[in-house]
User: Which sequence fits this backbone?
């Protein structure tokens, strides 16, 4: 390990690849509210954050588990449609609190498609966030509606029924959902959020 009077060790979170401090400083200097989207394997969290001395303040928050507990969504809360619905829910809550604009804070960009789906949900709620259309992949709209899951389920059901039962066992046995009707579930949940959020 290097030693000496001029040696300086970099910040721990920078070494771990968790924080880009130069980008974070630019975001903080803008003094605008930040939209923060984080995805784990099973959940999506969307927050609108205000930066303050002494720590950040969360003004609006939406978690994908709320889709099942409050809005009747029965499918997986970690998939692309759930990310879209969570972003839409956060955007509507922000509008209710008279928040009309923010900037996107991606941090380290993991789980790219689900993060972009949540961002698309925020834009659908008409919250103003600067972006470029080229930022989104071409098939994102199809993924958001659940059509891609339906296509895959239909293909498996016709070509390999055993694998279909194995992969979609969580839908079929646990939640008693037909994977071939995911887009209808997404559409119904979207309407429920729109009417009750």
Assistant:
């Amino acid at each position: 390990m290097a030693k000496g009077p001029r040696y300086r060790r970099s910040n721990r979170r920078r070494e771990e690849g968790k924080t880009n401090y130069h980008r974070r400083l630019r975001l903080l200097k803008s003094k605008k509210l930040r939209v923060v989207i984080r995805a784990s394997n099973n959940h999506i969290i969307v927050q609108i954050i205000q930066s303050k001395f002494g720590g950040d303040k969360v003004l609006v928050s939406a978690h994908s588990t709320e889709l099942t507990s409050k809005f009747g969504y029965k499918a997986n809360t970690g998939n692309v449609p759930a990310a879209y619905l969570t972003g839409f829910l956060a955007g509507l809550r922000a509008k209710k609190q008279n928040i009309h604009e923010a900037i996107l804070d991606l941090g380290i960009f993991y789980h790219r498609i689900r993060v972009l789906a949540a961002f698309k949900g925020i834009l659908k709620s008409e919250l103003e966030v600067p972006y470029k259309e080229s930022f989104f992949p071409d098939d994102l709209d199809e993924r958001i509606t659940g059509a891609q899951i339906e296509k895959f389920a239909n293909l498996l059901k016709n070509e390999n029924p055993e694998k279909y039962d194995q992969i979609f066992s969580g839908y079929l046995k646990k939640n008693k959902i037909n994977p071939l009707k995911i887009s209808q579930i997404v559409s119904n949940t979207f309407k429920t959020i729109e009417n009750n959020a």
